[in-house]
Write a structure and sequence with these properties.
Blueprint (H helix, E strand, L loop, with lengths): L10 H7 L4 H16 L5 H13 L3 H8 L17 H34 L8 H19 L14 H10 L4 H14 L4
Helix pairs in contact: 1-4, 2-3, 2-4, 5-6, 7-8
């Protein structure tokens, strides 16, 4: 059995002789980075250990780098992100509620002023009802209207980025227009 440790060796010795992967090295460097941030390692110690970690071949060599450091606490569980559709609906309902309460108050002020004047006055709350109502309607369409299926959460490819990418590749944008109309502009004389 050349090149391997026999089954009669201690489990710790077997692990120490196993080859480490790049992910194992990155994990150790991440732990060293955290210890440096916590003040347990100086810049020089961190740099030296980081270089040794990237140059190590076995778990035994990696274990030597963290032997004098306490174990790090486990990372906190990631909090679930709220559903974007639910957040959009909640914001819309807050918007609608503020619209309803504010305009109800304004209509009540108008009604009281009509009673105090003993005649029907111009219905001035219609300006807030109409103007703000258009904004609420637009918000409702964006919230409950047809949604474009996106590529998934965490994707940040807006239209401008897509346009820039297409222009660099020679498609879309003003480049397409200029290629198409270049020949027609060449014979125009002013």
């Amino acid at each position: 059995m050349s090149g391997s440790i026999g089954m009669n060796a201690e489990p710790g010795q077997r692990r120490a002789a196993l080859r480490a992967s790049d992910a194992d090295r990155e994990q150790i460097v991440s732990a060293l980075r955290q210890h440096h941030a916590d003040g347990r390692l100086t810049v020089e110690e961190f740099t030296e250990r980081m270089h040794r970690a990237f140059g190590s071949k076995t778990f035994g060599e990696l274990d030597l780098l963290t032997r004098d450091l306490p174990p790090l606490p486990p990372p906190l569980p990631e909090t679930p992100r709220p559903d974007p559709a639910a957040v959009a609906k909640r914001r819309f309902y807050h918007h609608l509620l503020s619209y309803a309460w504010t305009n109800a108050f304004l209509v009540a002020v108008w009604a009281l002023s009509c009673l105090a004047a003993a005649r029907l006055l111009f219905f001035w709350p219609m300006w807030t009802l109409l103007g703000w109502g258009l904004a609420v309607g637009s918000h409702a369409i964006r919230t409950f209207g047809p949604q474009e299926p996106g590529p998934g959460p965490g994707h940040n490819d807006d239209g401008w980025a897509r346009l820039r990418r297409d222009c660099r590749r020679g498609r879309g944008g003003s480049d397409r227009w200029s290629r198409r109309h270049r020949s027609s502009r060449s014979h125009v004389s002013w």
